[in-house]
UniProtKB/TrEMBL annotation:
Any Pfam family the entry gives: Peptidase_S46
Lineage: Bacteria, Pseudomonadati, Bacteroidota, Bacteroidia, Bacteroidales
Organism: Caecibacteroides pullorum
Top-level taxonomic group: Bacteria
Gene3D superfamilies from the UniProt entry: Trypsin-like serine proteases
UniProt keyword annotation of Transport present: no
GO molecular function: dipeptidyl-peptidase activity; serine-type aminopeptidase activity
The keyword Hydrolase is assigned to this record: yes
Leader sequence segment: 1-21
This protein's UniProt keywords: Aminopeptidase, Hydrolase, Protease, Serine protease, Signal
Record-stated family: Belongs to the peptidase S46 family.
GO annotation terms (biological process): peptide catabolic process; proteolysis
Protein name: Dipeptidyl-peptidase
Functional note: Catalyzes the removal of dipeptides from the N-terminus of oligopeptides.
Length: 719
């Protein structure tokens, strides 16, 4: 695992050993250098390298961008129309939903531009420019301005990015953001300039019974029948430049958009995906894989099981609560199930044995090369030392920072104490205002204290069972001593009496703030002791960060040299990549064959009116039964829903366009398959599959169910 200071976003970068054409998250800027375009053409690509990425002109890259904070979206019309996944747009759909306008349940279809809904906070980022800054970083290291480890840190790279922007012709241009990142574990560095649009409006979303059909039961599974899509539109000022929301803004005239193919799919057809894969860790040692299973994944499984069980109970009881917690539940459950599947797949797919063989080959390669000899053994020694603290961090963070929303910032209360004791009125007033803001941020429209209270009552004893008494925050001692181990009584007091527990409590405190009230405040003590324990474990963990970073840098460089002349790609770090492969079925186990596509027949086969995950809308059922599919059906009259490719994807690729050999849109990627959930650690060419929404099903739903023919009309569709 590539280690960064804990609680700071980590960026992994690595090589793999397989030369399989389907594996690889390739950097667009290195396609010509690595001759990957030749490999793509052998698979069926009809385009040239400049058609995919052209630093001096328009290319497919300009039709793809970052949707929100963690997904991919593509432009599918000259009017800035975005296609992404339903689960990527889910937070926005939930944001606009209420009991009166339940777009999660009923769907949303804007029948005109005037009906498209502004979505505050939602952004769309295009990659504007990519610059190789490896020589610049190395020169600073050589000159002693920064050491080799510091050069990989966010602090140094953030400062460098700002300096480069100041010298750039893009300085002062609307919407420009810049980010410097390490690749290949710090053996390479690139600077990314993004053009960011902040007026993004919701256009269309099917009901969750379509967009999330199959729910958690079908998540990460095949066969799949989920219409996982939503649509948004980018608005800009009259000059086409990024601008905050204004009624005067107009749809963005995009320089590039994807045309759509209705020609259909056959097994073996070429398929490529351009998007922003989030994170992979494919160079981990055996010890690091075990650490991932026992410290990281197991903590997520154990703590989120408790959290999700509580949410399920309350979401079933109230439509208001269901809407409030829909996005939180979806986000938490997604990687809860992923962690379960990953741990199972690591065992089923013999990943540890594969890593053992990899390390054996590397040891032979490293003989006589001082910079590589003993690197794996040193990494394993450090992993053994840091694993206990990582486990404490993960369990504590999942339970107390991930599940419980309630608390009171101790640093803010310390400022309040200072203001009271020094009688500093300006500081007092400023701190009062900050407390008001914190209260509002907790008690927002998507917060229900009854639910949060129930989560706390379930999660606190669960964490106590997972960790030793010495590993727990000090507030557990309060529970034992003052509440005789009664978690329910402690939690009730925490929520009932704390300053942040209610508007009345806060108003009472602000009217007459006192140090005594702060010292006895349970929420402040809860938050303070929680943070103290997290910081303690993080300090233990981080003391090994510098050494293991540099060992990984050497390890990754050595793996690349060992593979030559076969090109290597860096691990995913949420930067734009291209993967390529083919439409393909697979055999998950003996006697079982999964074909490469599903149809609407499977929707009716799965229908269960008593199970909210498998409800079929009456109108959709009627369309399927009448086979009213219009021009979107296959040649035999059936309606495709989803399909499989061998593309190499991971989280962040959600919403990515699946593109044929002629550069036309054939689908929208949204998931991986259960049997290959160890793929972020070790790619398995036989089992790894990308699950994609067939673009024909999207058009069918948009047209026949949503009645949005006007959106169909603005697209370029090839029959």
């Amino acid at each position: 695992m590539k280690i960064k200071k804990y609680l700071v976003a980590a960026l992994a970068a690595a090589f793999t050993f397989s030369a399989q054409a389907d594996e690889g998250m390739w950097l667009l800027q290195l396609m010509k250098q690595q001759n990957s375009i030749d490999m793509m053409k052998k698979q069926g690509l009809k385009l040239e390298a400049d058609d995919l990425y052209n630093p001096n002109g328009v290319s497919l890259k300009d039709a793809v961008g970052i949707f929100g904070g963690g997904c991919t979206g593509e432009i599918i019309s000259p009017e800035g129309l975005i296609l992404t996944n339903h689960h990527c747009g889910y937070a926005s759909i939930q944001q606009h939903s209420s009991v009166e306008h339940d777009y999660l349940t009923d769907g949303f279809w804007a029948k005109s531009r005037a009906e498209e809904l502004p979505t505050p906070g939602l952004k769309f980022r295009f990659v504007h420019r990519i610059v190789d800054i490896t020589d610049l970083v190395n020169a600073k290291v050589k000159a002693g301005e920064v050491d080799e480890y510091e050069a990989m840190t966010n602090k140094f790279l953030g400062k460098l990015a700002k300096e480069e922007l100041e010298k750039s012709d893009l300085k002062g241009k609307p919407g420009i953001e810049v980010r410097a990142l390490p690749f290949y574990a710090g053996n390479k560095y690139y600077l990314f300039y993004y053009k960011v649009y902040s007026d993004v409006r919701m256009v269309a979303a099917p009901p969750s019974s379509v967009g999330k059909f199959g729910g958690e039961t079908d998540n990460w599974m095949w066969p799949r029948h989920t219409g996982d899509f939503s649509m948004f539109r980018i608005y800009a000022d009259k000059n086409g430049e990024p601008a905050e929301y204004s009624a005067d803004n107009v749809p963005l005239k995009t320089p590039k958009y994807l045309s759509i193919s209705l020609k259909g799919l056959n097994e073996g057809d070429y398929a490529m995906i351009m998007g922003f894969p989030g994170s992979t860790e494919r160079y981990l040692t055996q010890s690091e894989v075990r650490q991932r299973m026992t410290a990281v994944n197991q903590a997520m499984i154990d703590m989120r099981t408790v959290y999700l069980d509580v949410l399920k109970k309350y979401m079933r009881q109230s439509d208001k609560t269901r809407i409030q917690y829909a996005n939180k539940f979806a986000g938490s459950s997604n990687y809860w199930k992923n962690s379960i599947g990953m741990n199972k797949a690591i065992v089923d797919n013999a990943v540890l044995a594969t890593k053992a063989e990899q390390e054996k080959r590397f040891a032979s390669f490293a003989q006589g090369k001082p910079e590589y000899e003993g690197v794996v053994e040193k990494i394993d020694t450090l992993v053994e030392k840091m694993s206990p603290s990582l486990r404490r961090l993960e369990y504590t963070s999942e339970a107390l920072s991930g599940a419980i929303e309630f608390g009171c910032p101790p640093a803010l209360m310390d400022k309040m104490k200072e203001a009271i004791e020094t009688k500093n009125d300006s500081l007092l007033q400023a701190t009062k205002k900050q407390l008001e803001e914190v209260y509002e941020s907790i008690h927002n429209k998507d917060y229900d204290q009854q639910v949060d209270r129930a989560v706390a009552k379930a999660i606190l004893p669960a964490l106590a069972k997972a960790l030793t008494p010495e590993e727990l925050p000090a507030f557990y001692q309060t529970i034992e001593k003052e509440y005789k181990g009664d978690y329910n009584a402690y939690v009730d007091d925490l929520f009932d009496t704390s300053i942040m527990g209610s508007r009345a409590n806060l108003d009472k405190f602000l009217k007459k703030p006192s140090v005594k009230a702060i010292n006895r405040d349970l929420a402040t003590n809860f938050s303070r002791t929680k943070l103290d324990k997290l910081k303690e474990a993080a300090a233990e963990y981080n003391q090994y960060a510098q050494e293991i970073e540099l060992l990984h840098k050497a390890y990754i460089r050595g793996l690349g040299e060992m593979k030559q002349p076969v090109p290597s790609y860096p691990d995913a770090n949420f930067t734009i990549r291209l993967t390529y492969g083919n439409v393909k079925s697979y055999n998950p186990k003996d006697g079982v064959h999964y074909k490469y596509f599903t149809t609407t027949d499977g929707i009716l086969e799965k229908e269960d009116p008593e199970n909210p995950e498998f409800v079929v809308p009456a109108k959709l059922k009627e369309l399927i039964q009448k086979k009213d599919f219009g021009r979107y059906a296959m040649a035999d009259g059936t309606m495709p829903v989803c399909f499989l490719t061998t593309n190499d994807i991971t989280g962040g690729n959600s919403g990515s366009p699946v593109i044929d050999g002629e550069g036309r849109l054939i689908g929208c990627a949204f998931d991986g398959n259960w049997e290959s959930l160890s793929g972020d650690i070790n790619f398995d060419n036989n089992l790894q599959r990308c699950i994609a929404l067939d673009i024909r099903y999207m058009l069918f739903i948009l047209d026949k169910l949503g009645g949005c023919g006007h959106l169909i009309d603005e697209m370029t569709i090839v029959e």
